[in-house]
Design brief:
alpha+beta; 2 domains; 3-stranded antiparallel sheet; two-stranded antiparallel ribbon; 4 helices
Length: 137
């Protein structure tokens, strides 16, 4: 959590924020409009770069973009079809297959002929499943 020390109006309607860097703790300043867009805040590119090395794959904002554009579009279309079916009541939500908690639909294979062929896993078990099956990320 970033510590905010001061919000100063530089010009009419333009503000700067003084804060501690989330990586090194150094006091830094940034325009409020830029500050509000980010969850983590850094004093320099080096801090951002070093902190990013510690992130898990899912934490990175471009996670899943290594796939070709057509494959990403196909997967998004299938997820959209599944979500719409759930909202319309054509597909009923089920509990997690492992623990019985609230679950989300997970596609093992993104097949346009079987968009509702899903397994129901909670967040924890979904991550475990992908650790065991890294080729299906």
């Amino acid at each position: 959590m970033t510590n905010i020390f001061d919000i100063t109006e530089v010009r009419k309607g333009q503000f700067t924020v003084s804060f501690n860097c989330d990586f090194c703790g150094m006091l830094s300043m940034q325009q409020k409009s830029h500050f509000d867009r980010n969850v983590k805040h850094y004093c320099c590119r080096d801090c951002y770069s070093e902190d990013r090395k510690t992130w898990t794959k899912e934490d990175q904002h471009r996670y899943g973009t290594g796939l070709p554009t057509e494959e990403r579009k196909k997967r998004a279309r299938i997820r959209s079809m599944t979500n719409k079916a759930i909202k319309r009541g054509e597909l009923k939500r089920k509990p997690c297959e492992k623990c019985g908690d609230k679950a989300e639909a997970h596609h093992d294979v993104y097949d346009t002929k079987k968009p509702f062929d899903v397994r129901w896993l909670c967040f924890k078990h979904h991550r475990e499943w992908h650790k065991e099956n890294p080729e299906l990320l």
